[in-house]
Amino acid sequence: MGLSSSLFSAITVTVFLVLFSYRVDSQPVLDSDEQESAYRVLESVNSEVPWRALFPDDLCSSAPHGVVCDFFEEQNETVAVHITELSFGFVSDYSSNPPCTEDSAINPLLSSFKHLRKIFFYKCFTGARVSVLDFSVFGSSLEEILFVENPSLAGSLSGKLGNSTSLRRLVLTGTNVSGEIPGGLGDLVNLEQITLSRNKFSGEVAVNFSKLKQLKILDLSENGFEGEVPESIGGLTELLKLDLSENQFSGKIPESMKNLKNLEFLDLGYNRFANFGIPLFLAEMPRLREVYLSGNFLGGQIPEIWENLGGIQGIGLSCTGLVGNIPASMGVFLRNLCFIGLDNNLLEGTVPEEFASLESVNEMNLENNKLRGKLPFSPKFAAKMGEKLKVQGNPQLCVDESLRSAKIRGSLGNLKLCHNPYGPSQALFVGGISVQKASHMLMFLGFLFLLP
């Protein structure tokens, strides 16, 4: 029985070694033309590195970080290997992609990789002008386009995304890409992220967003977009982040945004939305964590919409033309608030007592309003906030003796000391007669009128 067991083990090992040897010998290698194209692209990105000497073998078996391959079944039922990802630009020690130089360029042979799924360039194009690729040549294979911090990348996206039907992520940020967003972007139904921030885009956003049911991030911030925001943006029901800040959008904030029930981050700051007040539909977006509307002259009072928005951590309503009092309900319901900016408005009345109970807040800006009365904060609260508690520009605000004596850093030391009407010495006089004596005289006169 021992002999049979030993024989069986020997046969098993032999078969395994034969199969393993066959697999190694039969593993496909990268096509020589595709390997040459890869060398040329690497050399265009960084000619100082001897790529051919460092990686002389099959690039899909031994490749620099940032070059990724995958297997494909060909029409004749054979298996081939192709490059599917190309990432350039040092990000960190954990992602040591091929480094770029001031002379980095895009080699035309990059367009020859017909199985490419991902293109990533980080801080590569900082010198001479580099034109935007025609991404449509990659057809339906391309899933991710990421160009981050490439100020010399220029040109237009018009007509360059047409065949990218599998595209999931489109990220162009910190470039000189200009013109309008191609309307066909709304037909790329697999998109999950559109980040086109800090570029030179302009004109109206003539995109119908209603088909992009998988989109989770839409960031068009810091461009030159103008006109009204499309109502179709309300159809992005899976959206988590919407950032349209620092453009020239105008008109009314679309009412259709109330359909964005999953939205967590909303920034419409520093546009030209005007005279329609703070949108009441914010009350219907219970998953909001941050909302920034600063820099739009919305006008009106702060509405009572906070009861179902207890998850909010940041609110920016600076420079929005707000009038009236600060609702106490903000301090009651917004218990997770970390930042609130209400500065540079026309708010009046007192700072709500409830604001003193906002334990999570670490920055509060109430500067340059018409607030009055005593600040409700304890020395401990004010000390925690320090210079992040901003109240200057409200001449009628005052602090009590405990805050004044605490010598807390920031603007509190510039506020006047509150007068205590219940102290031992009365300071109010009318015509040289103290208020207390005047009240006694009125009581005496009233008594005389009651006499028969």
Low-pLDDT ranges:
10-25, 422-452
Cα separation of the termini: 135 Å
Largest sheet: 14 strands, mixed
Radius of gyration: 33 Å
CATH architecture field of one domain = Alpha-Beta Horseshoe
**CATH class value of one domain:** Alpha Beta
The percent of residues in helical segments reads 10-25%
Strand content: 15-25%
Give the helix/strand layout:
Layout: H1 2-26, H2 32-45, H3 51-54, E1 67-73, E2 79-88, E3 118-122, E4 130-131, E5 144-148, E6 153-156, E7 169-173, E8 176-179, E9 193-195, E10 200-203, E11 217-219, E12 224-227, E13 241-243, E14 248-251, E15 265-267, E16 272-273, E17 290-292, E18 314-316, E19 323-325, H4 328-333, E20 339-341, E21 346-349, E22 363-365, E23 370-374, H5 379-385, E24 389-390, E25 396-399, H6 401-405, E26 416-417, E27 429-430, E28 433-434, H7 435-450
Overview in brief:
By secondary structure, the chain is α/β, with parallel strands linked by helices. Helices cover 17% and strands 23% of the residues.
Would you give an account of this structure?
This is Piriformospora indica-insensitive protein. Keywords: Glycoprotein, Leucine-rich repeat, Membrane, Repeat, Signal. It is found in: Cell envelope; Membrane. Residues 1-26 form the signal peptide. There is one protein chain. The protein is α/β, with parallel strands linked by helices and 452 residues long. Among the domains are: 26-115, no CATH class; 125-273, Leucine-rich repeat, LRR (right-handed beta-alpha superhelix) (Alpha-Beta Horseshoe), CATH 3.80.10.10. The protein contains seven helices and 28 strands. It has helices spanning 2-26, 32-45, 51-54, 328-333, 379-385, 401-405, 435-450; strands at 67-73, 79-88, 118-122, 130-131, 144-148, 153-156, 169-173, 176-179, 193-195, 200-203, 217-219, 224-227, 241-243, 248-251, 265-267, 272-273, 290-292, 314-316, 323-325, 339-341, 346-349, 363-365, 370-374, 389-390, 396-399, 416-417, 429-430, 433-434. Mean pLDDT is 88; it is low at 10-25 and 422-452.
